Give the backbone structure.
Amino acid sequence: MIDLNKLMDFIRSNDYTTTRELCAQFGISESTARRALDKLVIMGKVTRLHGGAMPASVHGLTTEFQMRNAMNKEQKISIARTAAQHIQPYSTVILMGGTTVCEMCAFIDHMNITVVTNSILVLNGLKYSRNVRLILLGGLYNYQEEEVGGLLMGGALGDIHADQLFTCASGFDEIYGISTTNASIELYHSCIEASTMTCVLADSSKYMKGGAGITARLDQVQYIFTDNRLDERAKAALECRGVRVVIA
């Protein structure tokens, strides 16, 4: 019988753990791993995600953002690092809330740049930087996404110009462009209008997936930063639409 305490220690050490990883680590079947996770859910120790689990929030609440943030972590960090390399010194960039965009903070906190953001996590990641000048956009706080939005933000963006916009996506493809499940479509549109260049950060699992809201057409996007799991045919199809696809 599997030791649930050891299983829980392993999950905590990895932030997010797949069922297959549990099977390999403990030499158990997938059905045994799933039953063990079900017991940990009942005990309030983990939150189940598709194909695995993550530790439950210490506050008893796990947000949608936290669940997404735990998935494909290695790819997101690699994508964020590559995207950060395309920022020029003394430029102004908009960093929208999103799990991959937030990972950029570790790679830009030494740069002499201005960052405009609506993300609480970007604020937390850069607030002690002596080099980054932070401009925070105001609005209604959304705890599920750990960001702010709404009418106040749209008005503020009218007086801002950015060299680059870095944004995430719930999905992307060569037909519809960039999509999201976030209801604040107007915010994305305002950020695109305020920026000279739009850069999308999305791991390959987002290809041909997403929400009903179209945040950007491909003719509005200059770069898509993704990982090496993206199919070559997908990459070619996107580049045929005039988008530069950068593989991290």
In short: The chain is about 35% helix and 25% strand. Residues 30-42 form the longest helix (13 residues). The radius of gyration is 19 Å. The chain has a mean pLDDT of 85.
